[in-house]
Amino acid sequence: MQKIVPHLWFDKEAAEAAEFYASVFPESRVTSITRMEDTPSGDCDMVLFELWGQKFMAISAGPIFKPNPSISFMVNFDPLLFGGSQESARAKIDEVWNKLINGGSALMPIDEYPFSKRYGWVQDKYGVSWQLILTNPEGEPRPPIINSLMFVGDRCGKAEEAINFYCSVFKNAKLGSLHRYPEGMTPDKPGTVMFADFKLEDSWFTAMDSAHEHKFSFDEGVSIVVNCEDQQELDYFSQKLSAVPEAEQCGWIKDKFGVSWQISPIIVEEMMVNGTQEQVNRITQALLPMKRLEIAPLVKAFEGK
Predict the structure, then answer these.
(1) What is the reported pLDDT for 140?
(2) E strands along 124-221, which residues?
């Protein structure tokens, strides 16, 4: 079980977007599509898919939220993944860039930068943002796809605090590298986080502060699912991470930095994927009134009790 799973919110395009991403990245596939009927957003598709071995979730739930670059995905094109060939890795990064930029826009053009011989930041046609980077194979290995958090606006300068907080919440956590802005990079303040990475359970994250003007911030367009084994784990993560009580709904919570999480029991996903439409509908109706999720009533709903 992948403990931490990124979750994308779409208007109506979740299944279409998942199929598109599965066609773009290596070793990728759509694993399930579940219809949730009669929700406040109408009928919604819940989509599970894998990109380069990384599990993702997505939902079509109306135009309320949309992904933005505050949470993007860094994609490592490590030559070691391509038989040690830098030429093959570079060719693949260009191939993926050309597919993602079609209908999208470049946030940082694909080019050579001081930190990488090939890098580009693209927002695709569905609004999801990807940072493609030709990785130095001499560094410590990282997975192909990493969740990337950018702290902007009134949250700029809080990246390091957030990293330490998250590492204190998750029992299996690890700090990676940390690079600070030097003098002379106005408007970014010296000492704030230019780039850092850290590991929570089985997932790596990157984080950075950005004092530049941005017209976005963290919201539910991209959230982070924590798959829990039991009610005790559900209660633990909900209590530790939730900082905005009014944002609690259907297992969704918002932390003190504005990042949205979904604290969810893995058994609910299993029931939703494997259940009949009638069972899925019963779980959906039992789940909708809940703020923090309770496993026992959801299992009873699935069983028709």
Answers:
(1) 80
(2) 129-134, 145-151, 173-180, 193-200, 203-209
The answer to whether 282 touches 272, Cβ cutoff 8 Å, is: no
**pTM of the complete model beyond 0.90:** yes
- Measured CA to CA, the distance from residue 305 to residue 161 in angstroms comes to 45
What is residue 249's DSSP assignment? B
Per residue in 30-54, pLDDT tens? 999 999 999 988 999 999 999 999 9
How many CB atoms are located within 10 Å of the residue 278 CB?
10
pLDDT in tens, 153-172: 999 999 999 999 999 999 99
**Per-position DSSP letters for the chain, written without gaps between them:** --SEEEEEEESS-HHHHHHHHHHHSSS-EEEEEEEEEEETTEEEEEEEEEETTEEEEEEE--TT----TTEEEEEEE-GGGGTT-HHHHHHHHHHHHHHHHTTSEEEEEEEEETTEEEEEEEE-TTS-EEEEEE--TTS----SEEEEEEE-GGGTT-HHHHHHHHHHHSSSEEEEEEEE--TT-TTSPTTSEEEEEEEETTEEEEEEE--S--S----TTEEEEEEESSHHHHHHHHHHH---GGG-BTTEEE-TTS-EEEEEEHHHHHHHHHS-HHHHHHHHHHHTT-SS--HHHHHHHHHT-
List Cα–Cα distances, 109 to 20, 74, 77, 83, in angstroms: 22, 15, 16, 27
Is residue 6 within 8 Å of 225, Cβ to Cβ?
yes
Question: Residue 46 is encoded by which pair of tokens?
Answer: 């819940």
